[in-house]
Amino acid sequence: MKIEIIIVHLSCIQEVKIMGIEFSERQMKILYFLIENEHTTYKELSEQLYVSTKTISKDILILKEIIQKMPDVQMLVQPKKGVSLIGKKETLRNLLSSHKINIADSPEDRLTYVFAKLLNTNDSLKIQNLADELYVSRSTVESTMKDVRKRLNKHGMSLVSDRNGVRIKADEKSKRRLMSEVVNYYWGGFTASNSKTDLLDLNINFIGEANNFLNKDILKKVAELLNRYMNKTQLKFTDYEFQTLAIHLAIAIERIETSNFLSRSNNSEEEISENTLILIKMIEKAFSIIVPIDEQAYVDIHITSIEKNAMNHDLDQTKLSYLDMGVELQELVRIKLNEFYPDEELINNLVLHLNAAVKRLKLGVNIYNPYTDKIKYSFKRSFMISVDLLEEIEERFCIHFNEDEIAYVTLHIQSLLDRYKPDKTKVILVCSSGYGTSKLLEQRINNGFADMVEIEDVLSINELQDRKVTDELVISTIPIENTNFPVIVVSPLMLGADVRKVKQYLQLNEQTEDAFLNLLDKRFCFFTHQIKDNQVNVLNIITKKLVKENYAKEGILEGAIKREKLSSTAMNDFAMPHIEVDFIKKPVICVYVNPEGIDWDGALVHSVFFFALNEKVKPELNKIYETFNEIASNHELLANLKTSSSFEKLVYILKEGL
Predict the structure, then answer these.
(1) According to CATH, where is 1.10.10.10 located in the chain?
(2) How far are the Cα atoms of 430, 604, 627, 629 from residue 643, in angstroms, in the given order?
(3) How far apart are CA 553 and CA 47, in angstroms?
(4) pLDDT value at position 199?
């Protein structure tokens, strides 16, 4: 088996020329995505690259024509099915991998290069020397240094300047955390291909500056060692656990070899697990080093977390009490998620995950999540629910969950919501043709509309007169007039025309329940051209109006700002702040539009949707978020929103786009 680790970050790809053919940045991203995935669709690509399906279609036509000239690989485009590569994808992969991208052309790559230089030395670096190495001006490096300072400040680190140059002021733990973050940034995953030998052969490619942080030969050796370790201990790793541990170990080994050690932590005296000791012995033998007890403690955090993941743990709910914080976390999860009716599957999986996460975070060890942005964008409601839950856990255990951690919890919440069946239309059948025909009608409706309707009762016309009908749909084999409830008349045989009649009603009924648009209110829609607008100003305007109109309680502004600090709600060109239901008296969705742009904690947005929701709209929440997801994924609609200057135009644009 041959496994190649491709470390690619698509944002670093620029317009390039391969085989004399010029590829745009977007076309290069499409090719990489197709290589890594068996099959995709125009819609999926448009969501990945934030462009319309029409734009994707044009790119695919160009790429198909180019790839047709290659002997070993072809692009298959099937209407309504999607796009796939057939043949030897390695031919295309090797062609792309062999192309050298100028690492100093991109501001992000210059930033990474400078980080690597600063983190790998304890000495000061001169600005002019960095400029000479990068073949750029001194002013360009000074501009890069501003970004370095911002990034370091977010990690609790600082950049110190003296007569000798600049250097990072930080402890070893902080330096390693930043190194790990940068290497993860360039991680592209694993690909496997057959080999003539039984040995595991690992090839590693870095695209970008990750190789300045990490010796790829050490990472290759660590990955091979971890595969042997997995076979020896029979532990099962997720891809992300393998990735996180491999990078942690590779960085640790390099730092130990250069006598840069982690300082003693309070947890260093805890007993190291047997599986961790096995791994430590393998590392010491393979790299001829001694791993100090403090380093062992950090490795132990990873291993004990892996030991307790769902693949290695018996999900017996009664055993949760044996976890370090199992009882406390179980109680907290049940209380915080009570309104979503958490099932045992969620409780078991989530408590196992959180127990390991709390232990990790107490020692400052985060897990990287390559799909954070996609999860946050695709599962907005679940992400919000996760933020609510983790805010309570943060306060209880004095830890901090970053967005990568929140995204993993979001997947558990989304799985719970997916297990709920959508609301069904309640139906009463009225049939006076006898038992046989009424059973046939019931069966045919169940067969045709099982996911859409729930038959509550089968009645005769006389029985219907004694029955109080509220929100049910009546499907009858005989005409019923002068009623205050909906009636559809069908044949007892439920023929094609009858099926179409019921289907039309159900779809129309769904469309008329426009839960999202009904929550818009002219009083809470704001339009401005203010220059240098920002997050705090927008939240202040919206929340002040909500309190004034008696839609919200005092303290809502502070609550909204606190939530944004936990995780920014800026996504692409919009932001969607929200607040706990306890602050809201009446539900409403506020909209704020500024074509000049709004600085939303460093991100530039033009539209803000403030979700001021409470228990009153709980039955409609799925519909509300479904509609908003349509808005958020429609980039043309979002662009048009910037032109709206009145409530009427805003509603018109939304209705046209939906």
Answers:
(1) 2-97, 107-181
(2) 52, 16, 21, 20
(3) 38
(4) 39
